[in-house]
Amino acid sequence: MRSSTSPQARRPVRRHMATGATAAFLGLTVVLGSGMAIPAGAAESATLSGVILGVGANESQRTVTWYSSTDTAQVIQVAPTAQVANDEFPAGAATFDAMGAANIASSGGYNRHATITGLKEHTQYSYRVGSEGNWSATYSFKTQDFEGDYDFLFYGDPQIGSSGDLAKDQAGWQDTVDVSLKANPDAEILVSGGDQVETANTESQWNAFLAPNQLRQYPWAATIGNHDVGGKAYEQHFSTPNTDRSAPYYDNGNPAGTKSGGDYWYIYKDVLFIDLNSNSYNSAGGGGDAAHVNFVTDVINKHGDEAKWKVLVYHHAIYSPAAHAKDGDNKLRRTDFPTTFSKLGVDLVLQGHDHSYSRSYLIKNGEKENPAEKPGAADVYPGPGGVLYVTANSASGSKYYDITKPDSSGTSGAGNGADPLNPDNYWYNSVQSQEHVRTYVKVQVRNDKLVVENIRSAANGPDQPVGSHVDDVTVHPFHGDKQDLQVDVPNPAPGEFGWTIDGYNGLVDLGTAKEENGDHFVAGGKINPILVSDSRRSLAPWSIAANVSDFRDADKTFSGSYLGWTPYVLDGGAGAAAGDPVASGYDDHGQGLSVSRGLSSAEQGHPRGNAKLGADLDLKIPDSVDKGGYRATLTITALSS
Q1: Fewer C-beta within 10 Å: the chain N or C terminus?
Q2: Does the structure show a pLDDT above 90 at 79?
């Protein structure tokens, strides 16, 4: 698991936990110094409301935020649900001191927040907020495995109150939350596209947004929209981890002013999430686009190697199909953001604001990465720098924007020209949709892919019922999770000596290692076959060799020397002869494949032709290596005269 006593100052660290080694709350910390104005002994009865569960800095943390009618010292109390009976918490239940301040006048009362730390895997927890003798209702949440695959849900613009009918908007929002979590009960986080409410400081709208009880059971990853930014209620209702509230992340450049803001980040099970306040941009008072670029760059440079995927979230969609597609501020962001996102290896960008659905083509440096990518492709394969942008439709049905038409402003950069392959769409959108039907987006995080699905939470006629899909796409980028091996290959020059992978260069999945003899783990597999082609008239000798990097999972590693192999020739030709077997360094204390080893070679005078090469992989890992999903890169080298 990852743990962090100071989520902003220290990097999350995963540690292997031995089975049954500790009690449920060993290692929980208590935050001291809440800054409250009134000590607990002087506490008066408080009305507690607006409780919402939020994401922490990593999967072993949760934040909780709430409103209090009085300025009293308060805490979160937490215990495994199995130890709670009839809302009675055990004597040893952990408590976490809350911090907070007075709300603005229109909200009334006070806000409180605290972070739960030290959570364990596969545990149902109960919690409540308040103080002794003055507790809120009891709520619960469940943790799952801190490693491996998971799903999260993304919701676009509930914007409660936008239709003018508060009860209708609340009902639509409640229904989408109900439908999405009934279909996906094991989803682990709920991600916001912004615009939780229509009017920033109207608490009746916030109460309607907070009405679904699931917002106290699943962590909400808040995003600030243009309808949230106009007051301080957003900051009163949401506490976010690793948050930078410097002036450039506020659209008026004033964190102490009357508006909300801030950029933040967190890591959840091998996904680095970065959330931006896109209300602050270069023409606004804060001058935010350059600051956001610096924030994203700094976070990825410092923490990118702690995760296998990079997902950005902000409100103002820069690639979308409806009324906001041609907004000047979005055109500016469309110029300022994409090259940096490509350079930093961002995989997915989630957006809101335009109350319609779209998913882009793969975009690299502000242009379509592959001009041949077809509209609506079910599978996409980004190379380095290819980024997928998704805009979510309304999750509540409070407001929809109809799709607008392309113009002649160009088919790259800030342009809104037509797609040559589908002239009704903008050049950047692979799929555009507006059915005036509520939807949500499900993202499946898997070891070798991201699956993005836009799903109806209301029916669009009898042929498109609740739960049917508007759009699905699977992203096959740089792979990770479990003990997988990635092979990087160059393109061979045509008509000369060259080699390539036989088929798509997917992962070599070594699976889940198995314990052997009580002192080490073993895993095995085969490399993707390598095709060698030699049509040179010189019949000069050639050789193929490879070496492997260390295996890495975030900041955990083990040596590539533990990987060995047995080469062989699948299809003879071009004089190919198999290289010598190499033992795992675990067996002979050698260097294994951590140094270059021969896969195959041919002598001078060999016949022209083609060969197919393979190798069985033998990985043996000491049992001192921490639990995790590790990835390494096998570098292939070809030599020829």
Answers
A1: C
A2: yes
* Region of 595 on the Ramachandran plot (φ > 0 left; ψ -120 to 50 alpha; else beta): beta
Q: How far apart are the first and last CA of the chain?
A: 50
Q: If you write DSSP's letter for every residue of 140-173 in order, what string do you get?
A: EEE---SSS-EEEEEEB---BTTTS-HHHHHHHH
pTM: 0.81
Q: What is the pLDDT of residues 149-170, one digit of tens each?
A: 999 999 999 999 999 999 999 9
Closest to 378 in 3D by CA, of 308, 453, 438, 446: 453
Strand partners, 621: 521
Q: Residue 503, by phi and psi: left (phi above 0), alpha (psi -120 to 50) or beta? A: left
Here the tokens at position 437 are 């039907």
Q: Do residues 308 and 480 lie in contact, with contact meaning Cβ atoms separated by under 8 Å?
A: yes
pLDDT in tens, 276-306: 999 999 876 667 899 999 999 999 999 999 9
Asked whether the predicted pLDDT for residue 480 surpasses 90, the reply is no
Contact assessment for residue 431 and residue 450, using Cβ atoms and an 8 Å cutoff = no
Environment class of residue 238 by beta-carbon count within 10 Å: exposed (0-12), middle (13-18) or buried (19+)? buried
Q: Which long-range contacts (CB under 8 A, 24 or more apart) does 144-147 make?
A: 144/186, 144/188, 145/121, 146/1, 146/2, 146/14, 146/59, 146/60, 146/121, 146/269, 147/14, 147/269, 147/270, 147/627, 147/628, 147/629
User: How far apart are the C-alpha atoms of 453 and 458, rounded to whole Å?
Assistant: 15
Q: Which amino acid is at 240?
A: T
Q: Chain-centre distance of CA 551, in angstroms? A: 22
pLDDT tens string 607-620: 989 999 999 999 99
Q: What angle do CA 450, 472, 501 make, to 5 degrees?
A: 50
Burial class (CB in 10 A: 0-12, 13-18, 19+), 418: middle
Q: Would you say 454 and 357 are in contact if contact means Cβ atoms under 8 Å apart?
A: yes
Residue 350 has pLDDT above 90, yes or no: yes
**How far is 7 from 10, CA to CA, in rounded Å?**
6
Position 508 scores a pLDDT of 86
| The predicted structure's pLDDT at residue 447 | 84
10 Å CB burial of residue 157 (0-12, 13-18, 19+) is buried
CB 172 within 8 A of CB 210: no
User: 537: pLDDT confidence band, cut at 50, 70 and 90?
Assistant: confident
Structure tokens, 255: 């964190």
Phi, psi of 147 (to 5 degrees): -125, 155
Cα 462 to Cα 173, 280, 466: the distances in Å are 22, 43, 9
> Could you tell me the CA-to-CA distances from 86 to 22, 129, 432, 633 in Å, in that order?
26, 16, 50, 53
Q: What is the 3-state secondary structure (H, E, C) of 307-359?
A: CCEEEEEEEECCCCCCHHHHCHHHHHHHHHCHHHHHHCCCCEEEEECCCCEEE
Q: Contact at 8 Å (CB) between 469 and 514?
A: no
Structure tokens at 477: 């980028």
